[in-house]
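anyone else get weird line breaks when pasting these?? whatever heres mine. first is seq + tokens for prot A
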Amino acid sequence: MTAMKKIVSEIQDFHIFLRILIVLVTAGLIAAIARFTFGLGATTNLSDVYPWGLWVSFDVVTAVPLAAGAFVLGAIVHCFHIKKLEPLVRPAIVTGFLGYSLVCLGLLLDLGQPHRGWHIFAYPNLHSPMFEVALCVMSYTTVALLEFLAPVFEKFGFHLPLRFLRTLELPLIVLGAAIATLHQSTIGTFFLIAVDKLHNLWYNPILPLLFWISAVFTGMCIIIIEAVMVHRYLDQPDETELLATLARIIPWFLGIYLVLKVYALFFLSERPLFDRPGLTALFTIEMVAGIIIPLIMFLHKRIRKDSTMQLRAAGLVVMFGLVLNRFNVSMFGMIQKNQQIYYPSAIETIVTIGIIAAHILFFAVVARYFPIFEHHPEDVDYAIPDGFRRVKKPLTIGKPS
């Protein structure tokens, strides 16, 4: 009871934003229990027409590229030897590990019989892209866990296993990059089998390549968002100069992606393109707001060197474009003419909000209590810091402290 009282006391001292996140995570957990208790049919709006809904479109198809920063930054730092970006690696690894762990949770929620999920490995279909994605997600989550254990061992002083993990650091990062590359592209391969269902604005034979490239530049944008936010709201060092290096790389990938999208649209499409006004509008918004506008923004030197503009360009624009693209491919572009529209149920929505809140909450807790900002050890306080508690001048979410 003493330990429980201590935990409750600490939670009461948390900033109001973190306590709101705890409430959302609790609500998501209750909704998930209801899903497992009453089944998919009673708690979701999924059907034979829409076997994949919000949980697949967001928690899997969208969340996987949003967690891509770990393998992207690991490859940049250790494979291309851009060592000055190394201070950003650990926070990216934490984000990747949390992201993929929650993707696994989303997959379990969407399985009709989750207790038989292990059958995909016991009875493998080696020709199925779904088998490859399942294998890669489990493998990458394991690799990310091993990478995440390094700051945990540092925190508790486990020197022997820490020394062992450090000998495996480079192989793990290379392995993680290879695995992530496979399944980031294979998620796009899923939709190549929907020849007569996915609208031609998005269906094309290079969809796996487009998925991989979009995951790369989105992963770098997530790193920018993460670094700017922890500086503003968790009192970590300002990394604007390091982020400017990433901001110079991002427009190259955005440009390549734009060229490939235009090429696929006009040279690889054999069916009508602009025959449905609603889908045409969604495609136009995705291209203009999600690709062209951020490309123009990142080409400006002033924006690349300004943390506020980095956050706006990376967060509000690129992430919006990526999320819209994934929903266009996995949901909106699949809707046929005169077909009943799918709307997620309250349970589906609450679970998804809870998963998003859990990601943010767990990252904030890990960032506060573990040495993931390894290049500034003098700034790390392993006790509960003032910025994490209510103080006379409390941390204000939404404004720099």
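and prot B, same format (seq, then tokens)
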Amino acid sequence: MNALALLVALTALASAEPGSPPEATADSTPPAGSILLAPKVGVFKSTTPLDADLFLAAEVGYVTPLLERRLAVVLEVNYHRPKVSGTLTDPQLGGFDAEPPDGSYSVAVREVAFLLSAVFRFEQALGSLTPYVGGGPGLYLHRATSDMFGTVASESDGGFGLQALAGLEMPLGPGGAFFEAHYHFSPVDFVSTGDVNVGGFLASVGYRLRL
């Protein structure tokens, strides 16, 4: 009986294709130490009356070995310059006997932000799509420029804030195309703006390359 079992085993081994690799389990999680690079473009809308504006950003990330290689540390730099303009129509601006001056005004707030985020990726949790969430602190550099009654003035300041993000990535080539949404809290206290949060909401798209 033992000799028959040995013969069957040898026959099965001989019938196998030579050089066939063992079956492997697919794992789309990027290996620890991978570098992530991504340009972004989108629309930013402040929580203040400032108009919506074009948003530009670039990120570099590092995939850590933590949480089964699903946690990445990401550094991002972004730029936008929303503004608001209008006309003041109060006749008292010119006094009782004088002609009212030109009441047009504009205020623009330029922001350059450096963001550090911890990002957790749910690799292919929605079929081939990978949702992810993250957040962290940011250094926000602001410059407000106002033009009121023909007088132009500028103010500059910098400070720390917070941001949170969520995104969805679709595999494409050596990386993935993605859609992302952010919320930023970045307070300023300028003469032209008052003490307000000039952060807000943004939506962006981009392509994330894995190296």
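btw re prot B: The chain has one domain: 31-84+97-210. DSSP finds one helix and eleven strands in the chain.
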